[in-house]
Structure formats: structure tokens, C-alpha cells
Amino acid sequence: MQRLLFSGFNAFGQHELVKSRNSNNNESSAGFEELNAPELTNEKRLTISVAWRYSALALDRKLYLRGLLDGEPHECVTLEAGAEIRALAAGDSHCLVLLEGGQLYSVKPRLNAELQAVRLEAPPAPNSAPKRSIFGAVKERSSGSGSPIVEHIACGSHINVAVCSANAVYGIPSCLHQFPGHRFRVKQLQCGHEHAVLLNANGDVYTWGNGLRGQLGASVLRTEETPRLLEALAGIKITQIAAGGWHSAAISAFGDLYTWGLNCSGQLGMRVMKPDGILKEPTVYPLPQLHDLPECSECHRRGREGECAPVRVFAGSRHTLMIRQCGCVWVTGWTKHRQLGRQVEHPEYLDAFQELEGLQLDPARDQIICGPWATLICLRS
After folding, report:
1. Which is nearest to 314 in space by CA: 33, 35, 29, 49?
2. Which of 24, 168, 296, 369 could be disulfide-bonded to 328 (CB atoms 3.0-4.6 Å)?
3. How far apart are CA 79 and CA 64, in angstroms?
4. Exposure of 367 by Cβ count < 10 A (0-12 exposed, 13-18 middle, 19+ buried)?
């Protein structure tokens, strides 16, 4: 069975909570409440994406939209796709839906919602000499009228990105960039409000979009129209990435955590105020910052200090979570809507990574999904 736990902004009824008389349930899950979701069995593929006013949940072919759809909270609509839903990316005005065969659709979060096919422009033809027949006549190139096969999608407030099997990167629907060669493989794609972060199978990180808050990881704050190698991490094999609202994060194969971008609410795990509590630390960190993380209490108790490396990282608008090798969850950032679970010391933000007690995850099986102001945890038994 699969269970969904939730904490965060829910003013529009985006998430239906399980009503329970046992108030101790939340305490055992570090302040996260269980969600009431349909037919959550391990046999069905579960996909979730969260926007600020609605949530999108897919089970096999069925898509459920819930929240503020047409002007009233707690509205819900159910759709059925033509194939199994592989991925979702919820934005403010629409949700991208990727099917198993690589077909891409878009749906507006309305009560009269319909799946609309997304047409992507064909990637540029390779620059090669024309092929000729044995008589010397130039052979016609394939028209390429078939739709590109999409493999990855991501969506932010002002950016929509897709990557197809031919390694073409789209700012939907236009083709922005074509990575060369068949050896380039995209491993992960993430979007913040205005920027995108891409990780390939070799461990290289590429960023593009609005970088005026340092979220692209470059020393110069500017906008990049196409994917650009993050030179500050070049030569370091990265295994996981995350993109928050205006910040980014990455984990290396050595178990090192890096964060960069805007730190207005401590979402980078960097101090907001100096020790005197009067002066502020820098708000923007344009280059990746390496973290020296403390040991987990559980690993320290068991004498397993070497098993605390971070293995997965996730980001919302102004909060960041990571799962460490031992299964402990560590959090930092904005806490106003309880997006980090149980309230922590500071009433509005946490500006250093802190262990979330009462929650132990399986890094290989369990999943964390961050919305702008919310956090969901999918537990697989």
C-alpha cells in the first residue's frame, strides 16, 4: 500500500485530509497529516504535482485535479488519459501531462478541464552533407512531421520545459537547444519559478532562465536563454538536483550538498542574520555553497556516523528538504504554512538544516514532493 502525508498551505482544499479521532497520528509523522487519496495500491503508478492553488494526482490513466479551480475551494474534477500517465508538472495556469508513450498534453485547472495535445516544433536537422542515390541525385530528407517523443517535463510560474528523446530542450513549444550526440542522456529536470536545472547521466549540471537571484549558479547575475554548463560544479559528479522558487540544490556522488540562489528565508541552509541578530548575512549566493552537515542523532546513537551522507534533495518556493542515507529527513527554509512539518524554533523560518524528528524514510522507495508552500511524502510499504 501507498500512503500520502501532507503539511503546508491548504486554504483552498487542494488536499483532502483523512479525518481521524486519534490526534497522535500527526505526532508520529513529525506533524504531517495523512491524505485521503483514491485506490493507493502499489500496483498502480502514482504521480503527483502541486501548485499553489490546486493539486494534480494521477493513478495510471486517471487524473484528479483538486483545489481552487473555478472560484470556490474544494473543487474537484476527474479526467482520463488515453494511456498511463508518466509525469505531471503543475503550474499556475495549467498542468503538463506526459503519457507513457511520450505524448505531451496540457490541461487548465478548471471544472470543464480537457486534455489538450501540445505541439512541439521539430528540432533542427543535423548539419550533415545530403545523402545521394547511386545516380547522384540528392535524396529528400524525412519531413520530421511526427511529434517529438517527450521524456522529461517541468513547470514553474513563468517557465515550461520539456526534453525529448532526441535531446532537444524545449521552452514549450519552441526548441531552445539541441544537445549533440546520442551519448548525452538527461537524468533529471527541475524548474523553479523562472529557471530550469538539468542533470545528465555523466553528472553534469546545466541551468538556464532568469538568474538575477543567483539561482543559475553563475558568478554573474543574468538571464540565460539556453542551457549552460554550471562551471562551478564542473568535474564534480552530481547525482541529484532540485530547483526551488529562486534557489537550487545539488548532491554529489561523494555525498556533498550544495545550495545556491536566494536565501531570504534560510532556504539555502545559510544564516539569514549575523550572530548579533542585527545585521543580515548576504541574501543572494550566486555560486554553489558546500555544506558541512552535522550528524544525525540516530546514526550518532548507533555509532554509524559514516552513513549520514545526503542522497536526495527537494525544494519548494522557499524551503528545502533532503533525505540522508540513514533515512532521516533534514529541513530548512520558510515555515509560515507548516511546510516543514512540526513548527520549529523560529516562527517564520529555519535558516540551518535541522533534523525532522519522528520521520524515517526509505531513500530508495519513499518520495517527497514539494509544492510552492507545501510538502507531500509518499510512503510505499
Report:
1. 49
2. 296
3. 7
4. buried
Each residue's pLDDT tens digit, 251-285: 999 999 999 999 999 999 999 988 877 778 889 99
Give the C-alpha separation, 354 to 320, whole Å.
11
HSE toward the beta carbon, residue 174, CA cutoff 13 A = 5
Closest to 338 (Cα-Cα) out of 5, 81, 6: 6
The answer to whether the beta carbons of residues 18 and 33 sit under 8 Å apart is yes
Q: Is the previous residue joined to 148 through a cis bond, with omega within 30 degrees of 0?
A: no
Interval 296-321: pLDDT, tens = 877 767 776 667 899 999 999 999 99
Phi/psi-derived region of residue 341, left when phi > 0, alpha when psi is between -120 and 50, beta in every other case? left
List C-alpha distances in Å: 227 to 27, 122, 186.
43, 18, 12
Distance of CA 130 to the CA centre of its chain: 42
Other beta carbons less than 10 A from residue 249's beta carbon: 29
